[in-house]
Structure formats: C-alpha cells, structure tokens
Amino acid sequence: MPPPAELSRRLRPRASLAYSLAALAGVVAFGTVGFTLIEGWSLLDSLYMTIMTVTTVGYGPPLPLTPAGRNFSILFMVVGVGTAGYLLSTAVQSLVRSEILAAYGERRRQREMSKLHDHYIICGAGRVGRRIVAEMRRAGAPFVVVESNALLAAELKLPDAQVLIRDATLDESLVEAGVGRAAGLASCLPDDADNLYVVLTARTLNPTLRIVSRAVEESAEPKLVRAGANRVIAPTIIGSHRMAQALLKPAVEDFMDSITAENLDLAFEQVEVAPGTALEGRRLEDTDIRSRLDVVVAAIRRQGGEMIFNPSGDTQIHAGDMLIGIGRSESMSELTALARGKQYRRS
Hints:
The protein is of the alpha/beta class. It has 3 domains: 4-114, Helix Hairpins; 120-233, NAD(P)-binding Rossmann-like Domain (Rossmann fold), CATH 3.40.50; 265-347, Alpha-Beta Plaits (2-Layer Sandwich), CATH 3.30.70.1450. 51% of the residues lie in helices and 12% in strands. It is built from 11 helices and 10 strands. The chain has helices spanning 4-39, 43-54, 67-114, 127-139, 150-155, 171-176, 192-205, 221-227, 235-248, 250-260, 329-339; strands at residues 120-123, 143-146, 163-164, 184-187, 210-214, 231-233, 267-272, 296-301, 307-309, 322-327. The strands form 2 sheets. The protein has a 6-stranded parallel sheet with strand order 3-2-1-4-5-6, with helices on both faces. It has a 4-stranded antiparallel sheet with strand order 7-10-8-9. Strand 2 (143-146), helix 5 and strand 3 (163-164) form a beta-alpha-beta unit. Helix 1 (4-39) runs antiparallel to helix 3 (67-114).
C-alpha cells in the first residue's frame, strides 16, 4: 500500500475516473431517453441503439428510423461518440499518470530513507505511537514510522520518507526501515504477540539496537525482555502508578509534571562524557556545571551500569559516564557540548 501522500495522488485520478464514468452514464441515459421519446421505442431497443452508437459497432438500428430519429441520431453520434472517446481517453491518461507518479514517489522515498543513519523506528501509529512521534518531533530526532493502517499513518501528516505502510512484524519491513542503521526501535503495537515478534526480529537483524517495547499485559514483560527488549513499558501500570502518586503524594506528582511540561523551559536530559574532554577526570564540585550552568546532576551512570544517585561534590567524572541532569534547555545544550568537547554557540 502506498504512503499517505502517494495515496492522495492516486485518489485524485480515481475521482477523475469516477466523474468520467458518471458522464458516460449520463450520455447513455440521454440517448436512451431521446430514442424512446422520438421514436416511441421500448427502453431496451433505445438502450441497444444508444450503446451501439457510442461503441461505434454499427450493426444498424433495431427498427426503421423516422426523419426526426435520423436527425437525433446524427446529433447523438457527434455528441455521444465524441464525449465517450474523450472521457475514456482522459480516464486512461489519469490512471497511467497516477501509476507513473506513484512509482517515482516510491523510488524517491526509498532513496531518502536509505540516507537515514542513527535514526529511530516507531512500529505502530496508535495512541502510544502518536505520542512517541510528538516527542520525537519536539526533540528534532530522525525517525521512521512503520504502520499497516494507511488511515492511521495519514493522521500523522508526515513526509513520505518518514512513513512505511507495512506490517512491522515482517523482516522485510524492518529492513526497509533501515533497522541495521538505526539507533533505536520502539514497538508499540496493540498486541503483545506482535510486539514480541517485532522485538525478536529487530534484535536478530541488529544485535546492538536499543529496543523499547510496549506491554499490554504485565505478564508479557519478561517474555519481551528475553526476546531482546532493553526496556519494557506497560502504559497501564505506569498510568495507575501516576494516579496513585497524585492521590498520595500530590507535591511529588506536581514536580514530575513540571519537569515534563512543554510550556516550561526545563529539561531532564542525559549527557554522555566523551574521552579527552574538560570534564574527564575532574570532581563534580570542580566543574562549573552547578555554579555557572545551574544544572543539577541528579545521578551518574557508570559505564559498567553502576548508578550513583545524588552524587556528592567529591564524585569523580570518568569518560563514558552518563550524567543525568535537570536544568534549563539552553544550559543542558551547553553541558552536552562541553561533555562532547565542542564549543557551544548561543543562539
């Protein structure tokens, strides 16, 4: 099935074909009624004469024509045959043009998609998938959506190069989405069995891929992890936990909402320290992360997986550490540039 934009381009010629067929039916009705009224023939004889004239078969009239009938036949031959020929040629031309445009659009989409590297693949464009797409757009991250339902995919209003109308559980669909070059994959299909198959297939095709999967049922979580998912998210469990927090600990819930609010200039980000940068080998208190950037480092994750929560000022920063911080968006961008050894340019 073609992508949404190509689907729209195909619908226009098909609408033109429908109009042409309707106009042709109008011509046939005009001739049938005309012969019936002028010659007094039955509807079947009049329809026979009309179809014979339009198709230029030329068997001859079923009954002798009166002078008035001959005059009407001359008029109908000119109007009917000319109109039918024009409408049919227009319809064929529209269909051929649509197929050429669709083939060109498909090749262009494949070329653009083949250029993607370190992108993210989102399998499923349902309620969860749409929210992930919104977050990806806000973060400016490259991504591709794989969705079998063309109507759901069209609602995303994405360019052709970012949408695949395919079954995400098929190997060829993930290969076409560039799973071998991708940085991560989110499987958010509404069925746990389908998510399990996507995770297993993606892990086989790319052993280093970061995979996050949705779990509809809580019992599916360990199976998805065994299949190769790095993280399994159960929206039902998370939603119930947030509701309980809002009841029992409203201040904590308000703080979490303030972090994720789109209208606040506040970011909760992870920053990896690259080797040879100014942060490597220094204690946390000796950096200007807190004093100048006003960024709070809530945790540090070591390369081996050790997590240090609320690190003290004596904590030493190593290459490969993941700094998890809270601060203004511009400050977090400056910290990211500092951790990568690059010069940050203020806008």
